[in-house]
Design goal:
Strand content: 25-35%
CATH topology: L,D-transpeptidase catalytic domain-like
Helix content: under 10%
Number of domains: 1
CATH class: Mainly Beta
Order of helices and strands: EEEEEEEEEEHEEEEHE
Shape: globular
Strand order of the largest sheet: 5-8-7-6-15-10-11-12-14
Structural class: mainly beta
């Protein structure tokens, strides 16, 4: 499996009680399925808590929301993200896929590559990495699970080989725009639907 190409730090996992020299002891709320485990997920998503953050420019896609569409050329059980479409597809086989709207990276934060799902987490706590701290110096060190300003939303699935994730959101109006630092935002109902369809190891293809 190829390593995902990355342009910036977008996500990190703090497992157990310490990582990167930070002692947190964070615990996950009620797990959904067997893949969930204690962790805190950090994702670069702008404009969450700092009043100094510049507002996001959201370009809404014209295509319909979640639905089953025709899709050929990919193996069943693969996640395909088409950045310019702002769409994520989960290939179910027989030439069809489930299509979801997603928020994708800003023009200078986009990437492409092949990877796989490396972890699945329900309502993770969020610890902002260095770049988002530089952009938002007043942002908290940790935003707890389920907090209204937690950008991870209902669930998060990390992508191996880089520092990105597919996750829910606390800003549903941003889904469908070029808004993130490289992660992929979904409506909370959609991330939970996808979460139940995929497992750790599911292939992920990100295209421009």
């Amino acid at each position: 499996m190829g390593r995902a190409m990355k342009s910036t730090n977008c996500i990190r996992i703090l497992i157990g009680f310490s990582a990167f020299g930070i002692s947190l002891g964070l615990q996950m709320p009620v797990a959904r399925g067997q893949d969930a485990k204690p962790a805190a997920v950090a994702s670069l998503l702008p404009g969450l808590t700092s009043p100094a953050t510049k507002p996001e420019k959201v370009q809404k896609p014209a295509a319909p929301e979640r639905g089953v569409v025709r899709m050929a050329g990919y193996s069943a059980g693969t996640i395909v993200i088409k950045t310019q479409e702002r769409r994520l597809y989960y290939v179910v086989g027989n030439g069809t896929a489930v299509r979801y709207p997603v928020g994708v990276g800003r023009p200078n934060k986009q990437w492409a590559g092949r990877s796989a799902i490396s972890g699945k987490y329900i309502k993770p706590a969020w610890s902002p990495p260095d770049e988002i701290k530089r952009d938002n110096p007043n942002i908290p060190e940790v935003i707890p699970s389920g907090a209204p300003n937690n950008p991870m939303g209902a669930a998060a699935m990390t992508i191996a080989g880089g520092e990105y994730a597919i996750h829910g959101t606390n800003r549903p109006g941003s889904v469908g725009g070029f808004v993130s630092y490289g992660c992929f935002r979904m409506h909370n109902a959609d991330i939970l639907d996808l979460y139940d369809r995929v497992a750790v190891g599911t292939p992920v293809i990100v295209e421009r």
